[in-house]
Structure formats: structure tokens, C-alpha cells
Recover the amino acids of this structure.
């Protein structure tokens, strides 16, 4: 397993995203993923599956210290007292004493960012999370957050795949020594039939999805593909035995499109 290192955090390069996974299905996938060698599990308060993720973690038999667990605070809990209380509730559901990474899930312009970040830093200081970070923050918001936060921010978790140009965001994260964690890294499954990725994959004996994940890892990005299929777990992890050439990387960069973003809500910030 490769790691992305940022602000003292060692984030495994491939993790399991658990959005839309619930109940026994979620617990079973987490358990299987960990048994297959995954060491990075991503959840969030809004996913309503933290309890299931915790069940899968315990069922796997993998030592707690060997697993990097991320959860995310929902925007309605950004007031300082509420942020700490909701984090404690997340830990109770996960049945953990701390998470490895706690993120602000989306920017919330209705609560002063300085207050929210102060509370996030406090949660880290009192030992509820080893590291803290942000999610769905733009370049401008990264600048604000890094200036305002009393503790280092380890990452920005954002949508990133070959159809979406995130060059400016990657540069901003690199400038501040932060990692970029990619959600929807295989574009919600859309890349599976992509001709460019399939052609590159044939040269390596790999699938389009494996090429896509490898492209991210070679940019020093951590990817958290979500799958509900146990057979896909092995495929997504099996990307560390080949390397894309500069020419192949360049070909994939050429796939980006102005209409590439797949996750957009009314409350989203003004994207870069």
C-alpha cells in the first residue's frame, strides 16, 4: 500500500468510500475490504452508516491502529458546541475513541468559518481526531481556511476523475502541503466503458477503472472509490504493480471537460 503524507497524516492511497452503503451490506463490504488489504475507510454523518462502518471494522479483526478512518461533520453542526457534540456522537456510533481524520463536509457560509475551524482544531486538540481537514472547498476557501485554522489541515476531499479538471485545486493543496483525496474517482462508474482508458488498460492488462485509479495515485492523490460489489474491491486495490507512462498520463489529462462535474448541489460553493 502506498501512502499520501500531509501534515503528519499518512493517508492510504486507496480507500473505500461508503456513500449510499447501509446496514449489513455496508458492514460486510467494510469487513471484506479490510480483509483484502484496504486500510482506509471513509464515512460521514450524513451517510447514516457510521454504526455499520464500525461493525465492519470490528468484524474484520484488523487492529484499530492499522486502519485510517475518516468521517465528516455535516454542515448543520458547524456551530462550535454543536461540532464537538456531533463528533462525539459519530465516535459513539463508530464505537471508536478517535477517528484518524475529521473533515468539514461542505462549506457553510451561514456560520463564520473562523468559528467552525476553531471548533475543528479544538476537537483535534482534545484527542477526538488525529488529523483534521476540509471537503468540497474551492481554492479561495482553502486560502481562507489555512489562514484561519489554528491547527494544520491535512487535506481537501473533492470530486476528481479524468473528466473533471482539478489542476488549480491540486496546485493549491500542494502549495499548502495538503493532500487531495478524490471522491467519485471513477466518475460514478462512467469511466468503465471509456475507450481511451480501456485502450491504455489493454497495454498493461488492466481495466479502465484500474487505469483511472492509477492515474490519480501517480499524481499523489488518495482515491476512495465506492462500490457495492465485493468483486470490485480487489480490482480497485490491484493498481500498485504497473505504472502509466508520461504519454499515457497526458492522454488521460486530455479527457477533461467543462461539463465533467457530477456532484453539484444548490448549496455548493462557486466552483473553480
Amino acid at each position: 500500500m502506498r501512502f499520501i503524507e500531509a501534515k503528519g497524516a499518512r493517508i492510504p492511497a486507496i480507500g473505500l468510500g461508503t456513500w449510499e452503503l447501509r446496514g449489513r451490506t455496508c458492514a460486510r463490504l467494510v469487513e471484506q475490504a479490510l480483509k483484502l488489504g484496504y486500510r482506509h475507510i471513509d464515512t460521514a454523518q450524513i451517510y447514516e452508516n457510521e454504526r455499520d462502518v464500525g461493525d465492519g471494522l470490528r468484524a474484520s479483526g484488523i487492529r484499530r491502529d492499522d486502519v485510517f478512518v475518516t468521517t465528516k461533520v455535516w454542515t448543520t453542526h458547524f456551530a462550535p458546541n454543536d461540532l464537538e457534540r456531533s463528533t462525539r456522537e459519530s465516535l459513539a456510533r463508530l464505537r471508536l475513541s478517535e477517528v484518524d481524520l475529521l473533515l468539514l463536509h461542505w462549506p457553510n457560509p451561514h456560520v463564520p468559518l473562523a468559528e467552525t475551524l476553531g471548533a475543528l482544531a479544538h476537537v483535534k486538540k482534545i484527542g477526538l481526531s488525529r488529523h483534521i481537514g476540509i471537503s468540497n472547498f474551492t481554492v479561495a476557501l482553502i486560502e481562507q481556511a489555512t489562514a484561519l485554522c489554528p491547527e494544520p489541515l491535512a487535506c481537501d476531499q473533492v470530486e476528481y476523475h479524468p473528466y473533471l479538471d482539478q489542476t488549480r485545486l491540486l496546485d493549491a493543496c500542494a502549495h499548502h502541503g495538503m493532500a487531495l483525496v478524490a471522491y467519485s474517482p471513477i466518475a460514478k462508474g462512467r469511466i468503465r466503458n471509456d475507450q481511451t482508458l480501456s485502450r491504455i488498460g489493454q497495454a498493461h492488462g488492466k481495466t479502465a477503472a484500474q487505469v483511472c485509479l492509477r492515474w490519480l495515485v501517480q499524481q499523489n492523490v488518495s482515491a476512495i472509490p465506492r462500490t457495492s460489489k465485493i468483486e470490485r474491491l480487489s480490482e480497485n486495490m490491484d493498481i500498485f504493480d504497473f505504472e502509466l507512462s508520461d504519454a499515457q498520463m497526458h492522454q488521460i489529462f486530455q479527457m477533461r471537460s467543462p461539463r465533467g462535474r457530477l456532484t453539484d448541489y444548490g448549496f455548493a460553493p462557486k466552483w473553480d
